[in-house]
Amino acid sequence: MSAPVLASIAVGRPVRGEFTYTLPEELAGRLEPGQRVLVPFGRGTALGFYLGPASPPPGEKVRLKAVQRVLEDSPSLPKDLIALLRFAAVHYRYPLGEVIRGALPPGLSKAVEEKEAKPDVQHFAVALVNEVPPELSRAPAQSAALAYLLAVGGRAPLEEVAHAIPGARETLKKLATRGFAKLEEKTVEAGVKEGLIQGRPDHLTPEQAAAGVELRAALDAGAFQPFLLHGVTGSGKTEVYLRAAEHALTLGKGTLILVPEIALTPQLVGRFRSRFGSEVAVLHSALKDRERLFHWQALRRGDVKIAVGVRSAVFAPVNNLGLIVVDEEHDPSFKQEEKLRYQARDLAVVRGKQASAVVVLGSATPALETLENVNRGRYRLLELKRRVDDRPMPSIEMVDLRLERPREGVVTEEAPILSPPLLAAMEETIGRGQQVILFLNRRGHSTVLLCEVCGLSLKCSECDVCLTHHRSQSRVVCHYCGLAMPVPEQCLECTGPMLKLGIGTERVEAEVLERIPTARVARLDRDSATSAERLTEMLASFARRELDVLVGTQMVAKGHDFPGVTLVCVVMADTSLSIPDFRAAERTFHLLTQVAGRAGRGKDPGRVLVQTYNPDAEPVRRVLAHDFSGFSTQELEWRKALAYPPYSRMAAVRLEGEHPEQTASVARSLGNLVSRNMPPASAGVRLLGPALAPISRIRGKTRWQFLLKGPTHTALAPLLARVEAALAEVPSTVKVVIDVDPGAML
Ligand SMILES: Nc1ncnc2c1ncn2[C@@H]1O[C@H](COP(=O)(O)OP(=O)(O)OP(=O)(O)O)[C@@H](O)[C@H]1O
Ligand SMILES: [Zn+2]
């Protein structure tokens, strides 16, 4: 009897590693890696993924079980994706089967036979007008649906509009009967391309053209090549991505574009859609199961060759992948903060390597990790130093709040925050018929309520954070757990009067309305943008210039392209400086540069005013001087001195428990375990903590953490493996997670 054929299988259960099964004769030699199979597991059966042949397990003879059945004819997972998922499981220390299941659309993540996702017919809505007509002003739903369509290039799948705007199916029918839109049915076929070529500039800027030449050469070469596209705000990076994707298509290759947030980037989605029509699958976070499956299969078959999506789209099965773009690669939202804690930008580079693809990381403010990769010669640098049409960069001026006091005397709720120079600039801009963005990275009205007598501040009962006053809701709210309660009239401890300190966007909006009563003002933050519908409508109405002033949080700093904006005001540059995170300075610099970059993108030059109490703070000074390279050089030196990334690798072990004492003791014992097993000092591995997390309680759970720093991931791995092995002994009331390459330190 010949030896049985062995197969390596990832099992879709929370278990680590790969498992060896035997293959029944009728399957041997017939399976392809990435195919889903049914395997016996424990007392029942489980979904499995065939990964390839296996060699016999070492040691005593174990009786291996046999694969029961194949669930699909062709593999759901392309080869490069299997390699990526394997890497992710090892690197982020998460069970492989769970990693694979998490990447698959729901229809494929269960142990059932593959079903063809219907429809092969897709329904599209098409706008028949170029702007929302005035007669729709009393029909907000219709005007929102139409605004969405226009924002994404005039045409979009019905599913997508209905996702963005609840009830849009009915609304679009109404719009169709009124002749403002039409509904179409279209069979999705390979290579169909609709001729909606819209807004493709005839001439590239010299820098765009030069970048294009390099990217085309790299695509032609067909090998892995990572690039950083460092282009100042408004330099036309999107057009570089589009041309590269066009070239990939002519080579018959697929493209994957990752963006931070779809709802905030309808313009980018629209540019891809209008250039490539139904060649584009848009993968947003809240697709329905069936739609996810539909897109997965269409991409897997190669019927659709371009995917634009958020973080999780890094796992999209784009066929014959030639190009991966990560737009706004510095954005913290590329890091997933639960389950598989991956950094999609990093995985994009790994995937590019496995697929022999060209990778373009684009940003006006690249992450220091990315810059260091350029410095070490790992990534090639493409630069766009000038704005499109040689438009000038905005002038940036500082308003020193220590001198330009917006308020006199007492500190009260009514104390103004907009300084005289700021107000003057706003009035002047609005007077010229131009638009203003006001940025403050705090929502709510006042962010601290403090007793004037005993000094006690009002904190959440479940979390270690102050409650924020939301005046429009007449409530104080916890921004971590959502707890809300009426605003206390007096101090809960000593009945003293409460001062409302610390400003939020709501208060800035109120002050603008009070000081410039004629201004048309809207606020863009998570309180006002309660749905994708409202968000889109607000952005669209600002774009249509129905608003003069947009006040908002970092949501206004993202890649918007509003030509009418000539003034950007940073209400307080200091808010994010004091956060206990080694990336606080970098994050502040990025945010300020990005928001400043919203000014002067049209034909009129832009101006930026930055109010601050800390004009000497490094990130503030460097933003004022437009000095990206000065900032990054200095910050990299500091990181090097303290051995922070990119000069070290980090992992965080985070604990969360119901009982403070028990959590502390588990943290200490895991910490001890690590310090007992530390390699010699020369290895350069360091343990920081264990200590209470900077936010020591959330939702009533006590939080501890410790950090490991070392020269390489390999240096940290044995210690993390020890921690993992010890987890079996940890009581179930304490949850422990390992976070490799952590993002936020809170
Ligand atoms: N070659 C070109 N000729 C004319 N206009 C162009 C050209 N390339 C891009 N544009 C236009 O310039 C504007 C800015 O481009 P884009 O939004 O891509 O900038 P960006 O580099 O992504 O900026 P940010 O980083 O601020 O998001 C857009 O309105 C775009 O349509
Ligand atoms: Zn809370």
From TrEMBL:
Keyword Zinc: yes
Positions that bind Zn(2+) 1: C451, C454, C491, C494
Family matches, as Pfam families: DEAD (PF00270), Helicase_C (PF00271), PriA_3primeBD (PF17764), PriA_C (PF18074), Zn_ribbon_PriA (PF18319)
Positions bound to Zn(2+) 2: C460, C463, C478, C481
Domain Helicase ATP-binding: 218-384
E.C. number(s) listed in UniProt: 5.6.2.4
GO terms of biological process kind: DNA recombination; DNA replication initiation; DNA replication, synthesis of primer; double-strand break repair
Alphabetic keyword roster: ATP-binding, DNA replication, DNA-binding, Helicase, Hydrolase, Isomerase, Metal-binding, Nucleotide-binding, Primosome, Zinc
Cofactor mode of binding and number, as noted: Binds 2 zinc ions per subunit.
Nucleotide-binding in keyword set: yes
Domain of life the protein comes from: Bacteria
HAMAP family, A to Z: PriA
Subunit structure: Component of the replication restart primosome.
Family: Belongs to the helicase family. PriA subfamily.
Biological role stated in the UniProt entry: Initiates the restart of stalled replication forks, which reloads the replicative helicase on sites other than the origin of replication. Recognizes and binds to abandoned replication forks and remodels them to uncover a helicase loading site. Promotes assembly of the primosome at these replication forks.
Name under which the protein is recorded: Replication restart protein PriA
Record organism: Pseudomyxococcus hansupus
Taxonomic lineage of the native organism: Bacteria, Pseudomonadati, Myxococcota, Myxococcia, Myxococcales
